[in-house]
Amino acid sequence: MTLAIPKLSVLLAILLTSACTVGPDYRRPETGLPAQFGPEAPAGSTEPTKVSKEWWKSFSNATLDDLVEKALNNNKDVQIAVARIEEADAVLRQVGAALLPTVEAGASGTRQRYSEFTGSGNYSPGIRPNFKAFLSSTFELDFWGKLRRATESARAQALATRYGRDTVELTLSGLVTRNYLALHSLDDQIAVSSETLTNRETTLRITRSRFEGGIASQLDVQQAEGARAAVEAQIADLRRLRALSEHQLALLTGTPNLTIPEGDSRFMPVPPVPPAGLPSSLLESRPDIAEAEARLVAANAKIGVAKAALFPSISLTGSLGAESKDLVDLLESGARIWTLGFALNLPIFDSGKRVAKVDEVTAQQKQVLIAYQKAVEGAFKEVRDALVNIRRTAEGERALNDRLQATQKALKLAEARYDAGYSPYLEVLDAQRTQNDAQLAMIRNREARLAAAVDLFKALGGGWTSNP
What we know:
Elements: H1 7-17, E1 48-50, H2 62-74, H3 76-97, E2 102-114, E3 126-141, H4 146-212, H5 218-253, H6 287-308, E4 313-324, E5 336-345, H7 353-419, H8 425-459, E6 465-466
């Protein structure tokens, strides 16, 4: 006995066995970066390969930790990024739904009166009811992978939005940390300047007493008053800058009424020192690079979608239901109706529209590829710049410390020479100004060193930790 197979089933079997996914499969492009950012790691050292997501905690400051947490929870840019994730997830669900059949249910009921003066001889005039209930389904067979490529693209876009949020959070935590360290630096500068002001006021009182005693001149008094006023103006400008930095932190943290008490720490935190031989593979932890690669995956998949449109598309359709002139007979077996079929859409001539679409998405993929390569190269440069800044500011700090000690000794000598009458008061003022400048330079260099550490954390996508 021979089993009869319907012709439609034979056609579907042939098409299914010949199904394929057109378009290029994604392969990560070569970047040509060196294996390490700097000198080779010393023998026996532990190569850092892990990434610390809460890198700001390396500064061991509870206030900073609280500010970053508030920013990540309240900042409007983060909230926008989260909304973009929700949007991309919804798009992904829409595209993914195209891989499954759509099923719809329907029902209708009509009553219609026909004219007695029209129709054929066997026509029965009068009122005729009609009731119908049905289920219908449509399903596009994805022979060329158009729907699968579209889903691949949408999935990559959804992933890119998540990396986009991580990029916003990394940038935001870096801004909060840098602004807080700048505010911390201004506090230290205000404290140093306040001490200088106290010394200038003391010096002014002594100079006035010496003038009244006939030992100092009116010029010495005027010079002392001018020196005191200069420091007062310096403190006023530092307080202005501190207020602006505090306002910026309030905006970043989403706390309009934020106030940070002014303090005199005088000892800013020591920046963490990166180990030698940082591997360039740490760049893979950067969310902006991961986002750029996800967008490259999406653009690559769109080429497959456009190429699949050059081939025929086949859809299956079917419906099952019942139809009757009386509602009570709608569920009887004799009222059943069904349809089954397929539709073939074969592009023949469209004046090159579909081919142009392939060229369009291919050109877009090239743009995204170049953007990805540019992001990788830019990230490598940012890491190298931060490493240079850390190293050079550390060297500068040692030199500035030597300068500060020298200015302190010079001030003592200038005061002793003035008291002994060997030099004018201008020499003392110059020594005081030089010492004040040296103190402020030390603080600002430390701030620059800390800022370079923040830049390195950001450039590496979250810092580093060494494997045990």
